[in-house]
Amino acid sequence: MYQLLIIDDQSILADDLADMLPWQDIGITVVHRAYSAFDAIDIMSEHPIDVVVTDIQMPGMSGLELIAEIRLKWKHTKCILLTGYADFEYTKEAMKLKSSDYLLKPVADDELMGAVSRAVVELEEEWKEISSAQRAKYTLREQLPKLREYLLLDLLTGKQSNHTQEVQRKLIDYEIPFMMKDTVHLMLVRMDDEHNRYDGESEALIEYALSNIATEIFADRLHVWHCSDYHGYTVVLLRSKIDPTEYSRSDDELNSWIELRAFELQQLARKYLKIGISILMSKQVEFPNDIALQYQSSLTNFRHFIGEDRELFVSLAKEPTRGEPQLLSELYRLPSLSQLLEIGQWQAASDKLSAIFEEIEVHWRNSPEHILEAYFMIASAIASLIHKNKKWLADTIGEDFHIIANGRTMNTVNELREWTERVVAQYRNFIHVEEKDSRSTLIHQVQTFISKHLENASLQSISEHVYLNPSYLSKVYKSETGEGISEYLLRVRMEKASVLLSQTNERIYEISVMLGYQKPSYFIGLFKKHYGITPQEYRNKIGGS
């Protein structure tokens, strides 16, 4: 449930604290260890750490300096200081940095366990307050948040024009901290748990609690504006609180910060709301002119990159999205057939087609014009979606393409229904194959990178190479291969080690460095855990045989 990080430059002490105490008894499920403050920051950049236990006296960066850094980037993380000195100045500084506890070394096991347990309780109380049902009900009763939500939804769907004066007036009247021509990020958030677990009121309260947590997480640097759309997504718009002309950090730095906060939102939703969520973050666009088009693009990308998978996070801030032909949106009513197919709601699309055919049969059975109107609408929807995926219509639906190209008319509802069922089935199969192919290519890219850069390969370097978030990459790789990236990387390194030990005269410390392990002792421990004997014993055994 909670993750703990122990930092001490004396690795033996850090390892003993991590391995010897029953952390699971107080809700700690994952224990990380670091031997310097810099290693600790790297670990916190990749994992949602809840509680930190750190020594004060460390080379390079002290424990107090580390906590100051943590306060800037991870304000909800609880920090506990360990020191061998009963120095009042240290105590004052620890209080100033809002440390949860300050313990003198050597610390008794029960004393440390108690301090961490209290920190966990503090953390639970903080997030329960943020996500409490009472706070959600109060927000739900307020009229102003609903007006803000309706305005954002209208901007996303094109119901609200982008006329400068009208939009600006509503932004001021509704007290929304967004301005015309702002640069914004758009995020789609989907609750992955089945909706039938909740009644309408409970689901609304969970959505508001989730929105409150999101607002709290991003509040340090971003204004947050959110709404629920017609497809069951929560749409979140993010805008920097700092004037762009004064903002000195790079776009990449801001994107990385948002990604970390989004990953934290997933963890907190699972921990406190007991729900899984998937998130897709878009590239930066201009408000309000570009958000409707970006919203449609995000729906497509959500289906393409996440689909029916659960609890994934995808960022397209650094990855260029594929080009999109313009849609004739006036031909469709929300939710249109095109939108339902685009986000993979196959049953809803089938129901909509059935309703269209039924209406023609009941009211316009003898009207060729109405049959033709439905045919053009369906053909246009299929063509636009296939072109969005950068494929040719003829290559995707085969012989049925010639019905469109040759201008063949549909004379009966049954004829139209049969053609539509074939075309939609072929489009659905195309999407399924494309998703599988893209993931196979990804696995090949990961394994090729590892084989070429074994000495410095890590989850972070691999994810940067393939332009994907580490969490998303890990889940996709595990889903496709049944083996985690870290497990695969360890296996490849151990296999390479066995080859080097048996076929070369390289020294063990040299082999350790070649495999990416700076500490030979750490490499020796991993090798023994993997093979049951030390590297030297392995070499002796191979040489003797």
Structure description:
The chain has 545 residues and is an alpha/beta fold. The chain has four domains: 2-130, Rossmann fold; 133-315, Alpha-Beta Plaits (2-Layer Sandwich); 329-435; 483-544, Orthogonal Bundle (Arc Repressor Mutant, subunit A). The chain is built from 23 helices and eleven strands. The protein has helices spanning 11-20, 37-46, 63-73, 88-96, 109-130, 133-141, 143-157, 164-173, 200-218, 251-273, 291-305, 337-342, 346-363, 368-388, 393-397, 400-405, 413-452, 459-465, 470-481, 485-503, 508-514, 520-531, 535-544; strands spanning 2-7, 28-34, 51-55, 78-83, 101-104, 183-191, 222-228, 233-240, 277-281, 285-286, 313-315. Strands 6, 7, 8, 9, 10 and 11 form a six-stranded mixed β-sheet that branches. Strands 2-1-3-4-5 form a five-stranded parallel β-sheet, with helices on both faces. Helix 4 links the parallel strand 4 and strand 5. Helix 9 packs antiparallel against helix 10 (251-273) and helix 17 (413-452) packs across helix 19. The longest helix is centred in the C-terminal third of the chain and has 40 residues, at 413-452. It is globular and about 90 Å long. The relative contact order is 0.05. Residues 320-332 have low confidence and may be disordered.
